[in-house]
Each structure stands twice: as C-alpha cells, then as structure tokens.
Write a structure and sequence with these properties.
By secondary structure, the chain is of the alpha+beta class. It has three domains: 2-102, Aminopeptidase; 126-284, Gcn5-related N-acetyltransferase (GNAT) (Aminopeptidase, 3-Layer(aba) Sandwich); 292-385, 2-Layer Sandwich (Nonspecific Lipid-transfer Protein, Chain A), CATH 3.30.1050.10. 24% of the residues lie in helices and 31% in strands. The strands form three sheets. A seven-stranded mixed beta sheet has the order 1-2-3-4-5-14-6. A seven-stranded mixed beta sheet has the order 8-9-10-11-12-7-13, sandwiched between helices. Strand 4, helix 2 (84-99) and strand 5 form a beta-alpha-beta unit.
C-alpha cells in the first residue's frame, strides 16, 4: 500500500535521515522543516520518497513574489522507478494551483534532467572565480572616500541584513533571507583550521557593502603560499564599495588563491581588472523554476513596455496551463487571458520559465530549437517585452 501525504511529526526524524543519506549531506542540514510542508511517499508505512517545500519569497524582476522552495527530494534505492516522485510533484502542483496563493516553485537541482521533465527551467547562471590575489590589479583609478572595518556579527548582524535588502530591492532572483538561511549559508561554520572574517565598507557611517569570507590552509602542489580565501557572500551597492572590498582581499599576501563559487553573471569585477582572464571564470547553472499557474505567475513581474504576446503552452503535467494565451503588458500592469486563433510561438513550461526570468531571450531560445516560431517578426517584440532590469542572480548556498 502506497500513501502520498505530509509526514507526521513523529516521522520527521526518519524523513530527514533518509534525505540526508540519499543526498549525501549532513543530517544537521535536515532540520527545522514543518511537517505540514512535506509531501512524502510511504510504502507499507516505510518512507520511500521524501519531498518538502519552504515558503519563500523571491525577487521577480524587482517585486517580491511567493515561491515554493522545493527541497529534501530523494527516493530510497529500494523504491526507485515506481513513479513516486512524479506522483508527488503532480499532487504538489495541484495543491498550489487549487489554493491559489503561490504560482511559482523553485529548487536547486542535483541533476537538471530530473526536473526538466516536470516543467522546471534554469533561470540563472553562476560564475566561479579562482585567482591569485597578486593578479587583482585594477585597470582604472577609483576614488574610495569611505573606510573598511571588521563587523562583529553578534552585535551588528543587522548591518548585513540592511545591505543585502538594499542591494536586493530591484534585483531578479534573490531570495528573502531569514536568520536560519544566513546561518546555514554565508554565516555557516568555516572548515577546520579556517577563520571567518566579515568586512564592511562605509561612507560617513553608512554601510555600502560587505564581504564574508573564510581563510586558512589548503593543499597546493607546488611551493608558495599555502593558504586560500573562500568568499561566502559579497554585496556592494556602489562601485567604490565593490573596489574597496576586493582591494582588501587582494592584500592577502599569504594566500595562494581567492575562490568565489557564486558570483553573479553581471558582477563588475571582470570589467575592473587589467587581466580579467586571471579570474579563471567558469559558468554553471543555478536554480530552476516552474510556473505552476501560468496566468498568475506571469503577472507577478513588471515589464518594461507595452506589448501583446500570444503563445501556445504545452503542459501535460499541469493541464490548467495547457492551451493558447495572451500576455498584455505595460509599465504598470499586465494581464493574461486565454485566446483562440494565431499565436507567435509554441513552447513548454521549462522554456517559458527561462524566458520570463530573463536568463535567455526568445530569439536565443528559437535559435536553440527550444520553441516553435509561427511569426518571426514577433521575436524582437518578445525580446524587448521580457527584458529584465538585471540578469537573474540567486545567491543562496542552500534552502
């Protein structure tokens, strides 16, 4: 007998242990989840598949939007290939649609192919840096009238929250952080033998940026400095703040390498350096998102101009989305309605998610064969209408 239902309080320890074991993560990471936010498969009373969703808010081209932060997804090896995860996902989407409060779902994928089949599309790209601090040479002088100082987390945690909130205000993809997300992410305990440092840049007493990093010994194959610096979080509101924070990192003469695994695609640092190639920039996918109720999801973000976009959506998993739609936009409002007749393009939910988050343009999607074009002239209109103020950036280490 198979049941798909939320776990009970007395079952949460087993659910957390299985998720930790199957995902290869520390059991300490699987705590604090409300049983009502889970949806698991139980076969003959035993945990077969685990699944949960945090109630989060994410910036969607500026404004905040509610999103189900899917997590804890795993299936015990003895119960795989039985369709349990698909049944759970379908039931979760049906529940979100019927309740009508949350039109988006998002997650950090272990493998993109798993979730693409459920209509998730990748919505941001992350960059990683690996650079010798001696190669951080800046191309142009920049006045930095402020000062750097170390932040006492116990007394000044609010300083970090303030800078992060101000940076996030008009962005696209940044999640609203609770204290637990800070503690599990950028403020998590450093590796053994490493020390955490938090620096803030201020002008006239106003914080304009901060960096959180770990530093300590590493393993390197050749003689030279034996330490490295790991950037955990870096947000700067002004160019001077950005330059000052990276200047402080560049002064680590005893470090062989500075590492940052979560730089945004539009990070200004490469444009500031004499030798940006020395950053050894590497790109990888970020989070994936799903438009669970398309007519509600598309109106959550603002659009830069007036437009009328007509499309056919093929969505087998969420049949309430399947069909022909029209998105009408202007600078203040937008509306989504069902239509008959001709459409500009036909696409699937994964491609639509990538388009509306601004990760790729409609023209690029067409060139990659990700959609069917019925009116070539409409592509430029789609590109302009779906343009976002900032490229999508998601900075979380975990959720």
């Amino acid at each position: 007998m198979v049941e798909i239902r939320p776990a009970r309080a007395d079952e949460m320890a087993d659910v957390g242990r299985q998720a930790a074991r199957q995902l290869g993560l520390s059991p300490e990471m699987f705590q604090g989840m409300n049983p009502e936010w889970t949806l698991c498969a139980f076969e003959d009373g035993r945990v077969a598949t685990t699944y949960a969703a945090w109630p989060l808010q994410i910036r969607f081209n500026g404004p905040p939007a509610p999103i189900a932060g899917v997590t804890w997804v795993s299936t015990h090896p003895a119960y795989r290939r039985r369709g349990y995860l698909r049944a759970i996902v379908r039931q979760h989407f049906e529940q979100l649609h019927e309740e009508g409060d949350v039109a988006l779902a998002g997650l950090h994928p272990a493998w993109m192919a798993i979730y693409q089949r459920y209509g998730y599309g990748t919505v941001n790209t992350r960059h990683s840096y690996r650079i010798d601090p001696r190669q951080l040479t800046f191309a142009h002088p920049l006045e930095m009238p402020g000062t750097l100082r170390e932040v006492d987390i116990a007394e000044e945690f609010g300083l970090l929250v303030d800078v992060y909130r101000r940076f996030r205000e008009e962005r696209n993809g940044l999640v609203h952080r609770g204290r637990a997300m800070w503690d599990a992410g950028p403020l998590s305990e450093p590796p053994a033998g490493h020390q955490r440092t938090v620096l803030a840049y201020e002008e006239a007493g106003e914080p304009l940026g901060y960096v959180i990093y770990h530093s300590g010994p590493g393993t390197f194959p050749t003689p030279g400095p034996a330490h490295y610096v790991e950037v955990m979080d870096l947000f700067a509101i002004t160019p001077a703040a950005h330059r000052a924070l990276w200047g402080a990192l560049a002064a680590y003469d005893n470090a062989r390498e500075i590492r940052w695994d979560n730089a945004p695609l539009d990070d200004p640092l490469p444009n500031m350096l004499v030798e940006p190639r020395m950053l050894d920039i590497r790109a990888r996918d970020g989070i994936m998102a799903r438009l669970v109720t398309v007519e509600d999801a598309l109106t959550l973000r603002p659009y830069p101009e007036r437009a009328r976009l007509r499309f056919a959506l093929r969505d087998e998993l969420c049949p309430w989305n399947d069909g022909r739609w029209q998105l009408e936009t202007d600078l203040e409002t937008s509306a989504v309605t069902r239509v008959d007749g001709d459409v500009d393009i036909t696409l699937t939910p994964d491609t639509l998610a990538s388009l509306v988050w601004g990760r790729i343009t409609t023209t690029d999607a067409a060139r990659a064969g990700l959609l069917d074009v019925h009116d070539e002239r409409a592509l430029a209109r789609w590109d302009t209408a779906l343009r976002t103020k900032y490229v999508p950036y998601e900075a979380e280490h975990t959720w």
